[in-house]
Design a protein that fits this description.
Strand content: 15-25%
Number of strands: 11
CATH superfamily of one domain: Isopropylmalate Dehydrogenase
Number of helices: 12
Length: about 350
Amino acid sequence: MTNFKNSGSQCRIAVDAMGGDFAPENAVLGAYQAYAENRNFQLLLVGKKDEILKVASNHNLSITDDMIVHTNEVIEMGDSPASSLKKKLDSSIVVGAKLVKDKKADGFVSAGNTGAMTMSSVLNIGRIPGVSRPTLTAPFPNEKDGYTFISDVGTFVDSKPKHLREFALLSSIFIEEIYGIKNPKVGLLNVGEEESKGFQFTVETGKLLSESRLNFVGNIEGKDIFKGKVDLVICDGFVGNILLKFAESIIPFLRATLRSYANKGLYNKIRAGLVRTPLRESLKNANYELQGGLPLLGVDGISIIGHGSSTPLAVKNMVIRAKEMHDKKLIDKLRIEIEQHSNIQSK
């Protein structure tokens, strides 16, 4: 039986060992790598015990029984989130979220079914009081060798202006605390910079953002994202998810283009070889593995959702990010800011 007793203030991170296209292999390896490099937290692997121990045995990992929270079920990548959460109560995604809710874990990370992870976090962990909807915030590389953050990138596709204002508040606090960007500049994604441009939805959102305490600089266009004109771009989840999926396709496209060029002859192959390493280095900020996963901001606990194809490196960085969020007391700071924001809105 897993010992959930927290010795002192040691952080406890639960990892969905069954989540992802290559689970449990990648999930267990990545989580253990994070643990092996920094033993100053308690690792909890949530999933089928025999499969976790098999990976440990194959790779000579020192995983003990008290590091495993056994579950009998798995929510598969193709499962319906709503129905699977009702039917598979002993799944790793459900049990992992409940560990956070019950204060038996300080954070939960998963590369499993994104919809199920989102719904489980909202239903089982709950929302921070005053938050209508949580948001996923993603970093996009920019020309300034830094990041432009996008929120929301697909948590919901039917948000209202008030939800986007919450997304901006939650994400601003996150990037300030975790990435050290003070008073981040916020822009609203639109088809033009003028306040009157766009749908009524964007006009109303812009008005709410301009009336907030945020450092809102107005509308921006898609071309401004990679330029780094602002630190945080706000949009609805429908548009944000399209942006995210498009951005994820850029590096594979460049690799395929370079490979096609190299295959046209020896001279081309030599030239391609000369630019391959510089290109890889220059695009390192676009490597999702270095970020690991995306935080679901607005739930009353640490929840990080990774890509289904997450490598061990990506999982490792998800765990590290969860621990960093715990160490910096991000959830406490979000609660305080949301409460202050709610008090201002009610006056």
